[in-house]
Specification:
The structure is a single chain. The protein is mainly alpha-helical. It has nine helices and no strands. Helix 5 runs antiparallel to helix 8 and helix 8 packs antiparallel against helix 9. The longest helix has 28 residues.
């Protein structure tokens, strides 16, 4: 048994999550340890950090943004993998709680694995920072679209991977979308 991380599988899974989330979450393993989801999230965070570093080097970040934790520049390179790592466990807890509130009884590990898969949006969001540089309004619109897409991923994760009934998963997805948009407004 090989313990090497399979980057080709990560790439294939990432495309499947973005293109066919219902199919991906339906076939996602619910167990197998925390190593794979943690490493997956850290790789996504590192990819986002590299993109943010590039944007910072190209002059998109100014002053504090270049060194702030999770911002553009060197701060993004250092901070994004840690943000992604925290996202696995915090997001896993939120998905687990949402599933429990909807009457499903998934294990926490399955919820953390689904949360790690949703971290695929980190490098996408980092790449879309170019829209914010072009126009803050366009950046805001792209941020809204990505938050709605993230809620759509969570809906599929709840329904397909965590066993939530379709109607309840839809309601939970709408609630998560509203909460993420409210978070943007604050």
């Amino acid at each position: 048994m090989s313990t090497a991380f399979d980057f080709q599988r990560l790439w294939d899974d990432s495309l499947a999550i973005l293109r066919e989330p219902k199919k991906f979450f339906s076939s996602m393993p619910a167990s197998g340890g925390f190593g794979d989801p943690v490493l997956r999230a850290v790789v996504y965070g590192l990819a986002a950090g590299v993109v943010n570093l590039l944007w910072g080097l190209f002059g998109m970040g100014h002053g504090r943004m270049m060194t702030s934790f999770g911002g553009l520049g060197i701060g993004g390179l250092a901070g994004m993998p840690l943000v992604a790592l925290a996202g696995v466990f915090v997001g896993g807890g939120l998905l687990w709680l949402a599933a429990r509130l909807c009457g499903s009884r998934p294990g926490y590990e399955a919820a953390a694995r689904a949360s790690a898969a949703c971290q695929v949006l980190l490098p996408v969001r980092a790449a879309f920072n170019v829209f914010h540089a072009a126009s803050p309004s366009l950046g805001l619109a792209m941020g809204v679209a990505l938050n709605l897409f993230g809620a759509w991923l969570a809906y599929h994760a709840l329904g397909s991977a965590l066993g939530v009934e379709e109607r309840k998963a839809r309601v939970a997805g709408v609630v998560l979308a509203v909460l993420s948009l409210a978070g943007m407004a604050s």
